[in-house]
Amino acid sequence: MLEQELIPVIESVKQILEVDSDKISVLQERLPKVVQKLVDQQVAETRRNMAKDNDELIREINILSAIVSDVIEHRNYLLDLEKEIKQKQKEVR
How far is CA 87 from CA 78, 81, 83, in A? Predict the structure, then answer.
């Protein structure tokens, strides 16, 4: 009698194990694709961040380049003025 009562329970456990192993198989099949998708998303985000950082650096470099150009231009102007002053001083003497 006890054996007859256990048979449905044993069958239920077998079904549960089969369902779980099927789920595990499906998960094992899907896992590489899911991981690859996550990696691709992370790579894309990293690329976007790097591009943004590069754009900011290029802007800063362009600003600094313009400042350096202005300083060089101003220096040349001052050197020309200095030459002119020295020339006029020679003429006065």
Answer: 14, 10, 6
Going residue by residue through the chain (93 aa), what tens digit of pLDDT does each one get? 556 776 777 777 777 766 666 777 777 788 888 889 889 999 999 999 999 999 999 999 999 999 999 999 999 999 999 999 999 998 887
What pLDDT shows up at residue 2?
Answer: 55
Q: How far apart are CA 17 and CA 24, in angstroms?
A: 10
Q: Is 1 helix (H, G, I), strand (E, B) or coil?
A: coil
For the chain, the residue count is: 93
Q: Which residue has the tokens 């990696």?
A: 39
Place of tokens 């290029």: 58
Residue 31's contacts (CB-CB under 8 Å, 6 or more residues apart) are: none
Which tokens hold the place of 44?
A: 């894309």
Q: What residue has token string 């896992």? A: 31
